[in-house]
Design goal:
It is built from 5 helices and 6 strands, in the order αβαβββαββαα. It is an alpha/beta fold. The protein has 2 domains: 12-49; 50-227, no CATH class. The strands form 2 sheets. A 3-stranded parallel β-sheet has the order 1-2-3, with helices on both faces. α2 (61-73) links the parallel β1 and β2. The longest helix is centred in the first third of the chain and has 26 residues, at 24-49. The two termini are 16 Å apart.
């Protein structure tokens, strides 16, 4: 295991907060949710961290709050020296989201962040087109932003039907250069719950489950080999 797990319980904003534009009520809902996340993180720092390295892992609305948390506590701040990696998945990360916190560009890089949004290869939703490429994306099969796409042989295991069994070599993936989203190549005979989707948001983690687990351990090892840890 790469780390202990601390998961905040928070009053999540309703889905409608993302469907009503930038209304004041929507922002109030998101602010309330972030207040809970922030309070939980402050409690963790005060009572559990003791100077240890930190991994941030989030998805969807959680990633919106994680971006805000990273800006407030890590980006250009002393706490940034304790950051192993931030896995900010399933939400757009603008190219200018952070002032100093860099994008991870190798599997063993630390003090940085990764992110992707998964779609079936060939899919670029209208809302993504409107971003005009103002996003960043890392391929979780290579932990690189570069092309070409990675084949399914690099996928060490996906979770598609519950937590067992893990399916190796399930899908390939590559960064679509214009839109900066992750294009996933589905295998023949994939289950309907996956094969019929164009937006693979709910499978952002599951499709690359083992690769993410292995990478977290790799980055922790890299961090400890260079910086050590307070035990």
């Amino acid at each position: 295991m790469a780390c202990r797990i601390f998961a905040p319980r928070y009053r999540q904003a309703n889905l409608k907060a993302f469907l009503t534009g930038h209304s004041e009520r929507a922002q109030q809902s998101l602010d309330l949710a972030y207040t809970d996340v922030r309070a939980a993180f402050q409690y963790y720092l005060a009572h559990e961290n003791h100077g240890r390295p930190i991994i941030i892992a989030s998805h969807s609305q959680g990633s919106l709050h994680a971006i805000r948390l990273l800006k407030e506590f890590f980006d250009g701040k002393p706490l940034g020296k304790q950051l192993v990696c931030a896995y900010v998945i399933g939400h757009r990360i603008g190219k200018d989201a952070f002032a100093q916190l860099p994008l991870c560009r190798s599997p063993s890089a630390t003090g940085c962040f990764v992110g992707w949004r998964s779609f079936r290869k060939g899919t670029i939703p209208p809302e993504v087109k409107e971003e005009n490429g103002n996003s960043v994306c890392v391929n979780p099969l290579t932990w690189s932003v570069e092309q070409p796409a990675a084949g399914a042989d690099l996928n060490h295991g996906a979770l598609i039907a519950g937590f067992n069994p893990i399916t190796p070599h399930f899908a390939g993936a590559g960064v679509e250069p214009a839109s900066q989203i992750l294009w996933v190549t589905m295998p023949a005979g994939a289950p309907d719950r996956v094969s019929k989707l164009k937006n693979l948001h709910v499978f952002d983690y599951n499709l690359f489950w083992v690769n993410i687990r292995e990478n977290a351990q790799q980055r922790v090892n890299s961090f400890l080999s260079t910086k050590g840890v307070l035990r």
